[in-house]
Amino acid sequence: MPFCEGFLWGGAVAAHQLEGGWNEGGKGVSIADVMTVGGYGKPRRITDGVVAGENYPNHEAIDFYHRYKDDVKLFADMGFKAFRTSIAWTRIFPNGDETEPNEEGLKFYDDLFDELLKYNIEPVITLSHFEMPYNLVTKYGAWRNRKLIDFFVRYAEVCFKRYKDKVKYWMTFNEINNQASIDSPFMGFVNSGIIFKDEPNPWQSLFQAAHYELVASAKAVKIGHAVNPDFKIGCMIGYEPTYPLTCRPEDMVLAMKDMHKRHFFSDVHCRGHYPSYATTEWERRNLDLDITEDDLKILQEGTVDYLAFSYYKTNIVTTDKSKIDKDNKDEFSTGVDNPYLKKTDWGWAIDPKGIRYTLDILSERYELPLMIVENGIGLHETRENEQSDGMIHDDKRIAYFQAHIEQMKKAVEEDGVDLWGYMPWGCIDLVSAGTGEMEKRYGFIYVDKDNQGKGTLNRKPKKSFYWYKKVIASNGEDL
Ligand code: P53
């Protein structure tokens, strides 16, 4: 049997993408609350605070804040062993800089975790998933400011202490490495509250913010282990292997360089020190970074217990400019297609073998347990897709998961990768992070709501719901 006993089959979400209740229970405004709806090729706008008349999809999202009991019951029906969500930082510290936490926010997660544990579903918790307090951006300059380390660590410590008997698996920052795509306003803003391309020296700002986050993460890991030695605290990276378009050595080297950008953050999280390709880059770029001896010691002492990652697609690069489609090049795409792969409606290459490649590369590089905490396919689906049995037949989603789980098996069976769990993204339809759309659907459960925010919010299992239930029940044997 390839998957270990107690393998964490489940699903994943993030607070801001499903909870709604954006100003309830004492919650403060987060960076997700000032992002409008966008679309494929139409970036979400970041507004100056919450502006009347704008469409902010995360404000209501799918109203999980009020409906979580019914939703958790559906997850339990599927047989989930684990459920990954995040704690909204702004429910606990509404402005980020308070000294005392907001009890109503803490209570909400107590109730949610109790509800999960009632069904033996293990909560897998991200502390910061694209939803830092907006006040920390406007008042302190976001992660440009060293003070953010203390704000984050205080928040993390409060959560560790409060939930020490309810939550065992933690992650610090979601997809912390996305911001290495320095030209993307979205990636910088959601990771660090900074639009790097508008900075006087974007690379200086990126590496400084990254450093403070890595120190904050390492401090949190140390504190967490002191609070409960049984905690498993991981980091989380967005993993998108970069393939060279051709076997021309120039393409190969470019692909390798591109992978450095992906690995930089996890290298520090997992190994406890900066890789030489980064320190030489800082010198080459003449950066003047605030990094103290004490910081370096903390990085060394706060390495993670496991590495969690998302996997959706692979990307292609080439030095041959004539092969790059400029109209197709944006913050989510290199502008070069893989001729061997099909793409989703949002242009993401579907590459099941890439998940095996990912598992092997990360396992070899870090020799740590791995956890897949996001994977899946965004599809256009409406109730009109329903068949006569009244169900959405999402066969494309089933095929996507079948092919990916097959490859996971190979990594575990043939190559001995230590894999702890699999939590497909958006197990219930929710607001897309990249586009803000509701109609970029990932779920096993359909939620009746459209991009304009209209719909009953009713939930309905899709065909994949029953398929995944069978997969979990057979520990991945019956695909
Ligand atoms: P969406 C790309 C772009 C934006 C966020 O993405 C991303 C990625 C993939 O690396 O990251 C994760 O909703 C993220 C989730 C997000 C999911 O991918 O743009 O951790 O919050 O929803 C899927 O289709």
Can you describe this structure?
The protein has 479 residues and is an alpha/beta fold. It has a single domain (8-320, 350-473), classed as Glycosidases (TIM Barrel, Alpha-Beta Barrel), CATH 3.20.20. The chain contains 14 helices and 14 strands. The strands form four sheets. The protein has an eight-stranded parallel beta barrel, surrounded by four helices. A two-stranded parallel ribbon has the order 6-8. Strands 9-10 form a two-stranded antiparallel sheet. Strand 11 (370-374), helix 13 and strand 12 form a beta-alpha-beta unit. The site of 2-(hydroxymethyl)phenyl 6-O-phosphono-beta-D-glucopyranoside has 17 residues, from loops. GO terms for molecular function: 6-phospho-beta-glucosidase activity. Keywords: Glycosidase, Hydrolase. It is an enzyme of class 3 (hydrolase).
CATH architecture: Alpha-Beta Barrel
- Helical amount: 25-40%
Strand content: 5-15%
> How large, in whole angstroms, is the Cα Rg?
21 Å
- The low-confidence runs, each spanning 5 or more residues with pLDDT under 50, are none
- Arithmetic mean pLDDT: 97
Number of continuous helical runs: 14
CATH class descriptor: Alpha Beta
> What would you call the quaternary organization?
single chain
Number of strands: 14
What structural category characterises the helix and strand content?
A: alpha/beta
CATH domain topology = TIM Barrel
Q: What is the string of helix and strand elements?
A: EHHEHHEHHEHHEEHHHEEEEHEHEEEH
The total tally of domains equals 1
Distance between the termini: 14 Å
GO cellular component, one term: cytosol
Family: Belongs to the glycosyl hydrolase 1 family.
InterPro entries: GH (IPR017853), GH_1_N_CS (IPR033132), Glyco_hydro_1 (IPR001360)
GO molecular function, one term: 6-phospho-beta-glucosidase activity
